[in-house]
Amino acid sequence: MPKDLTHVDWPVSTARLTIRRATADDADAVLAYRTSPSVTEWMGIPPEDFRARFVAPERLDLLLVIERDGVFIGDLMVRIGDAWSPLRLTDQAEGVQAELGWGLRPEETGHGYATEAVEEVLRICFEDLGLRRVTAGCFADNVRSWRLMERLGMRREQHAVRDALHPSGEWRDGYGYALLAEEWAASRAGLGPPPA
Q1: CA 163 and chain centroid, separation
Q2: Per the domain annotation, does 157 fall within a domain?
Q3: Which CATH number do you get for residue 62?
Q4: 103 falls in which pLDDT band (50, 70, 90)?
Q5: What angle do CA 112, 130, 88 make, to 5 degrees?
């Protein structure tokens, strides 16, 4: 089973959106929205070398772009990684999980686009890439973000106390969410969560 984004048949379409691999040409569109106050509130002000960081191959390999009618509206990050395992089982734990992140241009929020895009990326992770677990995190006071995760069936696994430095310079609580492949499959089949 392929374990990286290069093996997906891009672009992928949903009812209203197109999701594709990011290219170096997307740097300015991403930078433009990431300087908006409602975005910097959670992500911070982009660094001066943002474009150089964005086009670095190891970064581009993680990034996807969300478009509506051919117009950039946001981006997604999919970081595929290994699960912890004892040394003798590391081959079974390689590339089996992913961490997700996302952002939208402020004027595109509130229309369900993030939900639609992240739901499709979950499908890609579980169905196309065969991953076993997907995680995402946010500041505890970023209500829109954790509500999106819960709408998609992700389970809150962690409430970490003052574990992350907010762009304001304050240490704030964070939430960690996760979804397993079998939970995803059960929800798609209308069966609800699997038995514990």
Answers
A1: 20
A2: yes
A3: 3.40.630.30
A4: very high
A5: 135
